[in-house]
Design goal:
Three copies of one chain form a homotrimer.
Chain A (H helix, E strand, L loop, with lengths): L16 H14 L4 E3 L6 H6 L6 H7 L2 H9 L17 H10 L8 H14 L10 H12 L6 H7 L2 E5 L9 H8 L6 E3 L5 H4 L6 H11 L6 H17 L4 E6 L9 H13 L4 H22 L2 E6 L1 E2 L4 H7 L7 E2 L9 H7 L7 E3 L6 H10 L5 E3 L9 H15 L17 H21 L5 H12 L1 H6 L3
Parallel strand pairs in A: 1-2, 2-3, 4-5, 5-8, 8-9
Antiparallel strand pairs in A: 6-7
Helix pairs in contact in A: 1-19, 1-20, 3-5, 11-12, 13-14, 14-16, 17-18, 18-19, 19-20
Chain lengths: 467, 467, 467
């Protein structure tokens, strides 16, 4: 990982000098370790084509809905930020909007990452403000024009060993193949099977999408054909390097249905005649089927539940998805996952990583499940919770029940390519801070803390994600 | 704000000497800033009439159900504390009960405030105990006899600039007018529109109350007339200085109904024939209507949801409301508020402050909502959570998602007039402590922390509450 | 309590030197105080018979499902750990499995206790590892052969004054009588009335069990007879020293039913014809009845709700209950307990201790309830939450609302006899750490902190559990 001085050598370490010293030692032990990024949303095209990033605004603002949402909350309409498909905004003006609203980002994870990126990658040490806006913009823009800031060069500079993308089941994965076969590119860019839109009958276009899936795999329009089609595409992903299948669901409800009932619901789903309860049953059975397939083919099953997507329909209608108004909801794992876990929870080689945006479940449900089921791993803090204090709360909540070795290792889950090292660096620093506290409290010896710090960025993600 | 030495110059600051020094500097920056109290329950009569406080017991105990509830839990019947309307208690005896039970208050927010008030206002440095009870009582009683302890003198001494009360929609606001027109009184005492009892058909006396409302505004007994009547009273409040409308609901459920259905439910509500589900629909629609009116007339909408009022009916029957057994329940915001936010969430000038007594919603629902909707602000910790550790947990939970500038600024929400400076001082100290941690962790620069500390007690509440 | 040097003199104390010094002083004040253990699962036979412990593996691993569950999660099948009734495992091999997986326990509560026990009782200072496995096993095994390691000797050495067991309502309590009448044994070993299996009609064997209960107490098969039978067995327990009745329920739902309806459900329960909703009503009414009986006979009512027992049915079928897959669920207290509390919440002498495995309820429901009802006490952190960080979170969550004197005092809730001193020592250290923070923050004076530290291990549990 690139050296990041960012907000100081002691950033995110505890205040107490002795604890800080231990944290620093542990962090130094992992600072330069290669980045394993087993889940994220970087577009593989930017690496396959290695085209230069266009401008600072697209890179830091427009593409990052963590950033645009907070500008929107502060009063900037999304079209003024360049999010309207039909109405471009002047990049420098949008950048000035960010600078004028920089105080809104202070204390947030996004603010911390952006400051770290500006400093470590572009040497910008001034805080963003109306006064520094243009100067910073120009500095970043001139940096981006250099060869050293082309995506592949950054990939190397960031020390990324593995980067997983997130892909449609019918994607031909040509860009992944291109990268894998290019001798000049040494990283591993792995596809991830993400079938949500093919599993939820309430997604717009569900029937057409399933028909395309069946056609692509030469299957009949039956539930059995549908399962075979999904299995075929999973196999295709596996052949092209995939290690996991990702599932973004409203709730992690699972249920096993007999084949006749499943066929009935499948037919009704294609016909658009399911009621709400039936649609829920169908989704719950398909999540169960995904576990069955993962237990069989070995793709690690990751579940990202508990988000009401596109909360503000008028914004969705005009600006589309991923525009900052996906809002978490209360989530239940213990009862919802019971059918799945009774069937596959102890299946050899089955791995399931449970992410959460509901902190109440950390100590109550996720850690106890991972503390018994060999298949269950505690997902690293996700989305809004992927931030220094939140990571620390998560470690505190899950470790006493399940230890360090049932956690998944950090995932950055980002579409903001430049933020990858800052995010991993944050996780490494916070884990060092957490471990240093356990050392000063006499709960872990220093040599063991060193081993754990290392395993958290290396052995653990390799095992959990079968890298 | 009056100088409060209370539990020491470093009270509530972190233990680490360096972090403590930063906290102290930040705190000194805001210690004397005027108090803005945009939500509370002080009776405007005490200021309008400026009558001396009667005795220490009424002031510190009887009027403060934070205090009586814990004495009750410790075994003191409420009638022995003077809460029975028909059975007065000897004030000095009640004070002795508090002193004998003082250990029960150690570590609580109430205990902290009372100790601070006794010291900063009355110079009492001894801890309360059976030995110090009478001495302290006498000291406070003799203080209260002085002119400097009359309500208006304290208002000045506390440095209060704005104090909002909470008022019935049919209140004539004469006491507010009197204060506003009195050239010798310089503070602003603002009414707040609190229509709960006119919106919930399950409140005892609902129909009669609505009839009074309609009569007072010369409206017909139709749903349209009812809305017009509410609008008219809101306008009256606005003319008399109100900046907000407050809503205490069991759940923040909202729904839009067509006018015919609303009329139907309204008629049934007056006739007392609504079933539970219909009553819920009616309440949900009225909360929706309140948002519509706030978007139109500009009154800031504050929502205080999630409390089962009067949990112990036998106590309610004998002692009335606000006697210490209002108990929080799990609360849901994301789905419940969706209809309201789809309709008004991006309406220009609409402000909605979401309070919570359910800590699980801070990072999961409230901060993400405020991180997108320009109308949504994160209410400061409320009720049981308005205490040093809880405030710190709240800042930690919401700031990484939404920053400092989506929070509401502190509200004291108190009917205990004397506790106002202690409560604001607590919030200022805790915010200084929180910011000092971010500074020592390299996440905020010191100059920016200074600006934020100041904005939290000044620019932010002024903007959120349109002061 | 035996002196435990364990992970260092400063274990679990804060890092800041000044706060640490205060914590140490407070801890020294209670370090040797007698252990009061008012709730746990130690088998009274081991004390009655005083037979030597068989081997290190049974003592530290096989009997402790906190330990076996995490080995299972790490890939060790339960039969390889010796849990299959029909398939013994070689103790030394199982011990080696623990040693090889020791890294999995680092940071967990179980890992902390085991390390403390190995050091303080057996003088083992090396961390467990494949290299130290055999050496440690031999050391423990040779220790166990000594008279000083017989259960009664340890009971004395641990400084246990009171130890409550958990017993079936039809138990004859002969072992408790034997201990009580033995002049050479000075401790108090008290039975606890645990009627779950007699109250939940969905427990396998419910009808037969109730018939046995009725036969044993010479009651007719009516609801009235059933209540009388339960009262009779409670009286028997009281006569044999019991101070409490314990209730492990899925949810703390309570309801009062009229006698005719109760009789109807009782008959259907015995006939096995209750549907799910009726079974829930019956359970809810029986929890209500248990409160009525506690209010009458004085047994302290403890409620341990919110756990889905035996989550993985295949494991339950093969290995039985208490094998590591009891998983918490979201729990609701405010509404569920309202009928019970309206009826008995202010009944003189009624004590009810509310435990929780759902941290969200601490500040939201349990502390507010205990802050009003004289009968309600806040149960100490339980099960997965009985660990240093979790205890600290709990104190932080409940104290500001309800103070220290509404909490129950620590319970160890353990079946691992050797872990009792380590668990109580952890609680004492963590409480000292918590108090030391309040002292350094100017919220509690040092003399008051000393009194509280002492009361937490002495006056408070004695009062709450009527010891």
């Amino acid at each position: 990982m690139t050296s990041t001085r960012a907000q100081g050598r002691h950033a995110l370490f505890p205040a107490d000098p002795h604890a800080r010293e231990i944290a620093e030692e542990l962090y130094e032990h992992v600072r330069e370790a290669p980045i394993l990024s087993p889940h994220g949303h970087v577009d593989p095209a930017i690496l396959a084509e290695d085209t230069p990033f266009s401008d600072p605004t697209e890179l830091f603002i427009t593409r990052d809905h963590y950033v645009t949402r907070l500008l929107h909350a502060g009063g900037a309409p999304l079209d003024a930020l360049g999010l309207a498909p039909d109405q471009p905004a002047e990049p420098r003006e949008v950048w000035r909007t960010l600078a004028a609203n920089w105080h809104r980002f202070v204390g947030t994870a996004s603010g911390y990452w952006i400051a770290q990126e500006l400093e470590s990658l572009f040497g910008v040490e001034d805080e963003l403000s109306p006064e520094t806006a243009d100067r910073t913009y120009d500095r970043v823009a001139s940096g981006l024009a250099e060869a050293a800031f082309r995506p592949r060069a950054l990939f190397d500079r960031f020390g990324i060993e593995v980067l997983a993308t997130t892909d449609d089941p019918l994607d031909d994965l040509a860009r992944h193949d291109l990268l894998a076969s290019d001798p000049s590119f040494r990283g591993r860019v792995l596809p991830t099977f993400r079938p949500d839109a093919y599993l939820d009958p309430e997604t717009p276009g569900f029937a057409e999408r399933v028909e395309r899936l069946l056609a692509a795999t030469a299957q009949e329009t039956t539930f059995a054909g549908y399962l075979t089609a999904l299995e075929a595409r999973r196999a295709y992903f596996l052949q092209h390097g995939a290690v996991s299948a990702d599932h973004g669901v409203y709730e992690p409800f699972t249920t096993d249905l007999d084949p006749a009932r499943a066929q009935e619901l499948f037919a009704a789903a294609l016909g658009g005649s399911l009621d709400d309860a039936e649609a829920r049953l169908f989704r719950g059975h398909m999540l169960f089927q995904m576990a069955r397939m993962s237990a069989a083919d070995g793709l690690v099953m990751t579940i990202h539940p508990g988000v009401r997507r596109n909360h503000h329909r008028p914004t969705f209608a005009r600006f589309g998805a991923d525009t900052g108004h996906d809002i978490p909801v209360r989530t239940e794992y213990t009862e919802n996952l019971r059918p799945l876990l009774e069937a596959f929870g102890t299946a050899p080689g089955f791995h399931m990583v449970l992410f959460a945006v509901d902190e109440a479940v950390y100590s109550r449900e996720v850690a106890p499940l991972a503390g018994f089921y060999p298949s269950v791993f505690i997902g690293a803090p996700w989305w809004f919770l992927d931030a220094p204090d939140a990571i620390l709360r998560w470690r505190s909540a899950v470790t006493e029940t399940a230890g360090f070795y049932r956690s998944s290792g950090f995932i950055d889950d980002t579409r903001a390519f430049l933020s990858i090292p800052a995010r991993h660096d944050t996780a490494r620093r916070v884990d060092a801070a957490f471990l240093s506290r356990l050392v000063t409290e006499g709960r872990v010896t220093l040599p063991t803390a060193r081993r754990i710090a290392r395993d958290l960025v290396d052995a653990i993600p390799r095992e959990v994600f079968k890298l």
